[in-house]
């Protein structure tokens, strides 16, 4: 994960943080991911699901949703 984040920062690539849960007890458990992001000083602006603006970025960048009104 750290290597991938290093390249994402280098190339200004946005990411989405999730729990990758395989069981219901792991849903929304982001502690490990957030710890790594903080440790690496990963820019919050590159985390798509850290803000409403990030969500709008994804929706507007999807060709079939470009005309969606908020």
Kindly describe this structure.
With 70 residues, the protein is mostly helical. Helices cover 39% and strands 0% of the residues. It is built from 3 helices and no strands. The radius of gyration is 14 Å and the shape is globular. The protein starts with a helix and ends in a 10-residue tail after the last helix. The model has no long low-confidence stretch (mean pLDDT 84).
**Proportion of strand residues:** under 5%
Give a quick account of the main beta sheet: strands, pairing sense, barrel closure.
none
As residue ranges, the low-confidence spans are none
Ends distance: 34 Å
Helix-strand makeup class: mainly alpha
Number of strands: 0
Helical percentage: 25-40%
Shape: globular
Average pLDDT score: 84
Secondary structure layout:
Layout: H1 2-10, H2 31-39, H3 52-60
In short:
With 70 residues, the protein is an all-alpha fold. It is 39% helix and 0% strand.
Observed structural traits:
70 residues; mainly alpha; 3 helices; globular
């Amino acid at each position: 994960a750290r290597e991938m984040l290093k390249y994402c920062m280098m190339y200004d690539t946005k990411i989405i943080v999730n729990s990758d849960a395989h069981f219901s007890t792991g849903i929304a458990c982001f502690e490990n991911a957030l710890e790594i992001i903080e440790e690496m000083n990963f820019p919050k602006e590159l985390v798509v699901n850290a803000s409403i603006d990030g969500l709008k970025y994804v929706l507007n960048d999807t060709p079939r949703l470009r005309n969606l009104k908020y």
